[in-house]
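Notebook entry, structure prediction.
Reason for the run: the old model in the group folder had no record of what sequence produced it. Starting over properly, with the input documented here first.
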Amino acid sequence: MAKPKSRYVCQACGSVSSRWQGQCPDCAEWNTLVQESADVSSIFAARHNLQGGGRTVALVGLDSPVALPERLPSGIAEFDRAIGSGIVAGSAMLVGGDPGIGKSTLLLQVAARLAAAGQRVVYVSGEESAEQVRLRAVRLGLGPAPVQLAAATSVRDILTTVGQGEPPALLVIDSIQTMHSDLIEGAPGTVSQVRASAQELVRFAKERGTALILVGHVTKDGSIAGPRVLEHMVDTVLSFEGERSHQYRILRAIKNRFGGTDEIGVFAMEGAGLAEVPNPSALFLTQRAEPVSGTSIFPAIEGTRPVLVEIQALTVRLASGATPRRAAVGWDSGRLAMVLAVLEARCGLSFATAEVYLNVAGGYRLADPAADLAVAAALVSSLAERPVPSSCVVLGEIALSGEIRPVAHAGLRLKEAAKLGFERAWAPAAVAADGISLARFDNLKALVDQILGR
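New structure, fully documented this time:
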């Protein structure tokens, strides 16, 4: 028969130990451990019983009345569009992006606009001195804005300072990887320091109703540095994207508890800072007098905003025996391989001896399957040296059978194309739209025949 096991329970705090000790290791009380018979069978059992001793939590129904969160317009329409009509009081926002992309510039402009509107705004820089930030503000023409500026890295010092008097409407921390909490050992930027610092800052924002914006560094693969739990702690995660060699920047909402995701705000980097781009389609379309083979126009959609982009394709015939190359910039290379396979298997075209290069103009990145038909049109146009009409947009998803499937928000896409002067559209058979001439296709072979003039 197995020997009965026993445990020692502290009469002061309820802590459970496997052996007797004079002092409780949890509450530090002396001579409070009492032996009891144990109903647990392993040393890995829980040390505390959490089924009692707590406070009662209020339970409410789903139909309980809830007030909509108060929003604070930033004064920058593209920024408000990305986050959902304004900054929510008491919310925490995380903004990530590559070094030098313009995160600090954008947030300094947001802080200046809010401060000029009469709100108390505090901007804390952990990477630059106050003089450096002030020089940038003067260069951007934001010097007169009453932004309260500080250079600090201690979370305790920051919270002590902003906690005096009326709490600020907006607190900007640039960046969270430079913050340091004296409750945790370790250098700034470590996992424990980032987590502890962000937790204290978010707690202050929730308790005092201050909108908090944290700037986050990114790793070389584009993800935000630090623990993954950092993205779960905040209410909104924004990604500031773009190539430093290009003029435009895109602010994309990845997570948003107070609005929709996949909304974008488009900015252009200029000498006076980041300027809003109300019509982003003009950035991604090439103006030319004559149509060129290997190009097609695709009406993409980001959230509720349609954006017209140009897809460029180039095919180069190789000598027999050479291995052809496939390269895609701004689009998934695996999906390019799928479109090429469907063109060969279902339409009788041969790309086996040709190098294929695909590019989305302007550095734009596409993940929309509705771009399949536009990619196929550009590839066929390049292979046959027959241009797609310059007044035509192309959209549709391609199935492995060669069927062209309908796409979401087709009417909104075509409405934007008509507004920009496009007269025709090549689209799936189920699409209907006003103000633009439609050529509908059931399968990919019909589109190939249209381009080749069969």
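Summary: The first strand starts at residue 6 and ends at 10.
The old model has been moved to the deprecated folder.
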